[in-house]
Amino acid sequence: MLTTLRQIVESVTAAPSLSDAMHSLVQQTRAAMHVDCCSVYISEPQRQRYRLMATDGLSQEAVGKAILPFDEGLVGLVGRREELINLADAPSHASFKYLPEVGEDEFKTFLGVPIMHQRNVLGVLVVQQKLSRQFTEIDESFLVTLAAQLAVRIAHAELKGLISSSSNHRAVHGVGVSSGMAIAKAWVWQPKMALSQVNLKHSDEPELQLELLNQAVLQVQIELDSLAMRFQDAVQVDSQSIFDIYQHILADPNFIAQIELEITENQWNATSAVRQVSERLIAQFSAMSDPYLRERSLDIRDVAQRLLSCLAHSHMDQFDFQEPVILLAEEVTATLLAEIPKDRLAGVVSIRGAVNSHAAILARTMSVPAGMGLELPLQELDGQELIIDGGNGDVIIQPGSAVLAEYEQLIQQAKAFDDLVAQEAQLPSETQDGCPVSVLLNAGLSLDVDNCLMDCSDGVGLYRTEIPFMLHDSFPSEQEQTKRYRAILEQYSGRQVCMRTLDIGGDKPLPYFPISEENPFLGWRGIRITLDHPELFLAQLKAMLRASEHNDNLAIMLPMISCVSEIQSARRLLDQAWLEVSDELRTRGSAIRYPSLGVMIEVPAAIYLLPDLAPYVDFWSVGTNDLTQYLLAVDRNNARVAQMYDGLHPAVLRALQQIVHTANQQAKPVSVCGELAGDPVGVLILLAMGYRRFSMNLNNIAKIKYMLRRVRTDALVPLLEQAIQLHDSVQIRKLFTTYLESVGLQGFFSKKA
Ligand code: PEP
Ligand code: MG
Q1: Which protein residues have a CB closer than 5 Å to ligand 2 (ion)?
Q2: Do the domain assignments include residue 586?
Q3: Band of residue 751 on the pLDDT scale cut at 50, 70, 90
Q4: Which terminal CB of the chain, N or C, has fewer other CB atoms within 10 Å?
């Protein structure tokens, strides 16, 4: 039964159209379940009815014509109850409705399941039998599984229907992850780059191009090996030999040597050389009369595209962006964003990802509007005009002139607001009742550091060190790291810079240090990796310490601490690095201060260990992004559960209260550096709890300072007392936005400002 189920699912997925998918499903299901009839009814919500769209067993004449109102018949009942109905004697049920046109008079047994997608009933899948029969639990789960598969196809097709019938604009809703609006053409990023997409370009660095080619060949060989292994397990000899052919192509001196020749003799860059040689070979093979050899042109194309994908990943610069685009991808990663020239990125749309994935944080850092969790047929949108509203996650496809004019006006208003708050950005950050607050910067995700707004912060509360590692082809050297860290310490001279040690893993993999795990956010991440690799950790610590020579503003912070032994081990390594660097400097008559060492409170276990951690640390910083994900057991990257990821969840608020309370008891400074510290409502709540140090993305600094200067902590404390009694974060947010309105800040702050 499992194999049959898999076959039906595969054919539903592979069918070229929804209608084909439904027809194949009803036919195969009828045969597999040994029933007399299988039918699909699709919902038409505007008309409150179902329409028969495919059947094997009822009259074919009725397909597309037979209609059942939502409130009638057994099909209607399945939809209303949103659960399956299994009846051995259907005609005797009160809801049974006889439809003469479909010819179902002989059927006695009925099993119907709703086709659900994102809590909506898209239709009903039904099997019927002439003889009285009780469908079993296995039958039920078989049909439920098929309905779930069909739901995905229907939802996708509905969307496609919307897009192709586009005389008017169409809107698709997702999750807003970086506010702001933009109008631009869609540019679809595919990790699999097509040969024809390669822009032919020369390069005057043949050595580098050869090295890139070499690495790509190695990577493809590894990929092919692991694919072959997978098929080996399944004992599919034919499939396995395909990979042998691919490996032969890669090892064929004619193929690779020709590409190398194009690089060295004709000065093409690696991707251009791959394109030219492959296209030549494809043309030669396609022209052969022997069908076997003709087929080999497909293999060459596949191998070439694999090579291109490896090369393209690390080299975005080969795309020629003539004008700013809205980037669309199945999964936008932080690395991808960091690689696109910033002045060409108008907006970001990702099918996967959610509000606190690192790509979303980076989009906010770059002030680029972004939406995630949108279901879109990417290919069909390439080159189409879009509007993205990153505040609410809406994407409007091919907007008409009225909608365009409306958004152009909104974009102007938003700019006027930014100009207004920027005027006060240099003023000190303190509340109206005179409470001083430190507004710090979260830096490091974006590579550009020359923004004048940076001068408005009181220092760097979180310097994420991962991105330079992610954009490299190998681990950056100690010298290179020193140079980068020194630049930032010098730039913030006189203000503290809190550098976080490498926090890779989770959604921040390094291309040259692959980690394959089922649950990366619960796996080898942050301090767990660096303690296992003291050589990497020591190099980074020494680079930070060396950079602090003549710069007395370094603090070091450790990510993902969950037990005392981690901080003990990390401190031992810091001692070792400090002694080594100090000895070295002493020979030159120089010295460095021992830096403050802090830890991130982002694993819930750390909250309960605060008093135990206290003797080993100088400060704490709360990472609300991970703390929320781990407290609520909601993946911060998963669009499907994005609605449940909630930084104002009462449990998160109680945890935050407990942290500030213990920090005060232990007389340790504590800051917040997760995204909550850049959310106006989050800041108000944290202020009321007693937090006074907030580290946030660049684009929030002016807004938050503007807000701080207009609010009173003594008004916020009673609001917090009320909020903490509430069970619902929507009500909690409302309480504080009402307060913002009362001090004249209405409408200034969207949820994800
Ligand atoms: C956090 O988890 O809140 C945090 C600031 O770190 P990151 O988002 O980089 O995981
Ligand atoms: Mg974190």
Answers
A1: 602, 623, 626
A2: yes
A3: very low
A4: N
